[in-house]
Amino acid sequence: MLPDYLHSAEADHFAFIRVPKILLQNEAFQGISVEAKLLYSLLFDRTELSNKNGWRDDQDRVYIIFTVAEIQENLNCGNKKAIQLLDELENKAGLIERKRQGLGKPNLIYVKSFYCTVDNSGERHFLKCQNDTSGSVKTASLEVSESHSNKTNNKKTYFNDTDPSFLPGSEPKRIDGYAQYKSYFNSELEMPILIQNYPTEKETLEGILDLLAETCSSKRKAIRIAGDDKPVEVVKSRLMKLNSMHIQYVLDCLHENTTYVRDMKQYLLTTLFNAPVTIDSYYRSRVNHDYPSIHA
Fold first, then answer.
1. d(CA 63, CA 85)
2. Domains by residue range for the chain, with CATH
3. pLDDT, position 13
């Protein structure tokens, strides 16, 4: 069956990985394969979630965890190809840096700015790009160079000018259907990483993923939460604010609960719905309990 033509704004129903045009058009990146540029875009996209979750080292640098297995799955390639692309980004382009954690643990990956490159001697070369009004460009103090501008009428297209609904921190636009919600939550909650870090909780995590997709794709006008019927849009909005830290919090709640749960599905849904507003007080109370002298 051949793909159908696009009608109206059907593309708005899907999430996209943003590939910086500067990677495709600037001469500094001409020696890098298209697959490596696509992988960089995937890694760059992951940094937004890591930043939200506070994944920073003691120098306040954001890091991510993106395993070789994830690269194979996302790019539909073999193990050797995935490793080759990582080596290309690190050793040839200087766009990432990997840090080993030790035997059996995945590498930490630091995604570097594409505004500069690093040559074999370690010298950093900042790209000369056209002027732009975005805050990130102003703070980078990039030089203006007409010779490096792209050949379109709009010279500000190195940087993202797509629908703002796809910008980091905003909710996806008009997601419809169970499968799309499941794909969304699988990515936003970093489910592959959670399953890798909590292998004994794989069944529970997959159940949470199914529950979130089922709830958000529901056609009902109200969803029952802790005995109250709440508007489905309110429930969806709250659930779509969840991140991987909230899911870890829900797992902690399940482990520490000592009472009999008659309806596990309803208990899970209530815990997920309340997670964004209860997570801080929960962990604060644990710190006060474990280290009372700190707050004495």
1. 18
2. 18-162 (1.10.10.10), 178-295 (no CATH)
3. 58
